[in-house]
Amino acid sequence: MAVVRIRFLGSGDAFASGGRLNACLHLEGGPEPMLIDCGATALVALKRARIDPASIGCVVLSHLHGDHFAGVPFLILDGQFAKRERSLTIVGPVGIQKRMTDAMEVLFPGSSTVRSRFPINYAEWHEREPTRLGSLTVVPYTVNHPSGSPAHALRMEVDGVTIAYSGDTEWTEALLDAAKGSHLFLCEAYTFDRKVKYHLDYATVLERLKDFDSRRVVLTHMGQDMLRRLDEVTVETAQDGHVVQLGRSG
Fold this sequence. Notes:
By secondary structure, this protein is of the alpha/beta class. The protein has a single domain, classed as Metallo-beta-lactamase, Chain A (4-Layer Sandwich). The chain contains eight helices and 14 strands. The strands form two sheets. It has a seven-stranded mixed beta sheet. Strands 7-8-9-10-11-12-13 form a seven-stranded mixed beta sheet. Strand 7 and strand 8 form a beta hairpin.
């Protein structure tokens, strides 16, 4: 079994609750360093953590809301100005390439038509169909979180280690399939017990904890309501900079 490390570069919601950065996870232990989601603050988080943005070989996106994907244009442009040479693969929901082009044109008009110094490859998720990224396999599960294109929970497997990620969603049975038998389930807990459409609350997660059948559950994407009551939470929670290690030494 490989040693896999997940660093929470951003563990916050869309509104920077608690001063936390947008959703962005750095994964080491696969074929090359990668990001799981890449919210608008991702480039800040990478440089704050002293991680070279050019070291990122792949970005996998759960859905197309700005706090989960809007850091990609900045990652691309940083690569341009830093004279990056290695290729970048971006995998996300159907329509990812057009959404990225549109985002770049809104943020930096004309940037999408400039010849890239490095290859950028796009691929789209298809419901429950595995996508191979070297030794890493990712399987998407459609969840309930409208974002202009299907939103997904992701199940990632690399060298005997399985990591599941809820993305953003209200309760759906698809989460059970994504998390089943995983070594780690990274799960949204936006509110404590208040129901917010298209999001998960801690009370629901706690109620279904055993059903996830995951060895370890870490909560992320917490809003202000959840952060105010962390002293009542009995499940492990993330914060910016938090590192989870799995495998031989984890």
